[in-house]
Amino acid sequence: MTQTTQTTTRTVEPRPGDPKITPALVAEHGLTPDEYDRLVKMLGRTPTFTELGVVSALWNEHCSYKHSKNVLRTLPTKAPHVLQGPGENAGVISIGDGIAIAFKIESHNHPSAVEPYQGAATGVGGILRDVFTMGARPFAMLNSLRFGSLDSARNQYLFSGVVKGVGDYGNCVGIPTVAGEIVFDSAYDGNPLVNAMCVGMMREEELITAKAEGIGNPIIAVGARTGRDGIHGASFASEDLSEASEAKRPRVQVGDPFTEKLLLEASLELIRSGHIVAIQDMGAAGLTSSSAEMAARGDVGVTIDTARVPVRETGMTPYEILLSESQERMLVVALKGREEEVRKILQKWDLAAEVIGEVIAEPVYRITEGDRVVAEFPGTELVSQCPMYDVPAAESDEAKQRRAVNVDAIAERPEEKDPAWTLEQLLSTPTIASKRWAYNQYDSTVRTNTVIGPGGDAAVLRVRGTDKAIAVKTDCNGRYVYLDPRVGGRIAVAEAARNVACTGARPMAITNCLNFGNPKRPEIFFQFKEAVGGMGDACTALGTPVTGGNVSLYNESPTGAVYPTPVIGMVGLVDSLAHITRSTFKEEGDAVILLGDCTAEIGGSEYLATIHKTVAGAPPQCDLAQERNVIETVLEAIRSGVIASAHDCSDGGLAVALAECVMADREQMLGADIDVSAWDALPLRALLFGEAQGRIIVSTSNPDAVIAIADRLGAKARQIGTVRSLASGFTIKCASTTLRAPTERLARAYHDAIPTIMGASVQGLAAEQAEGVAL
Amino acid sequence: MKFGIVTFPGSNCDYDAFHAVTDSLGQEAVYLWHKDHDLKGADVIVLPGGFSYGDYLRAGAIARFSPIMAEVVAHARRGGPVLAVCNGFQVACEAGLLPGALLRNASLKFVSQPVYLRVEHKSGVFMQDYAEGDVLKIPVAHGEGRYTADADTIRALEDQGRVVFRYTNAHGDREPSANPNGSLNDIAGIVNEQGNVLGMMPHPERVVDPLLGSPDGLALFESVLGAVAA
Question: Which residue of A171, A449, A577 is in closest CB contact with B110?
Answer without folding.
Answer: A171
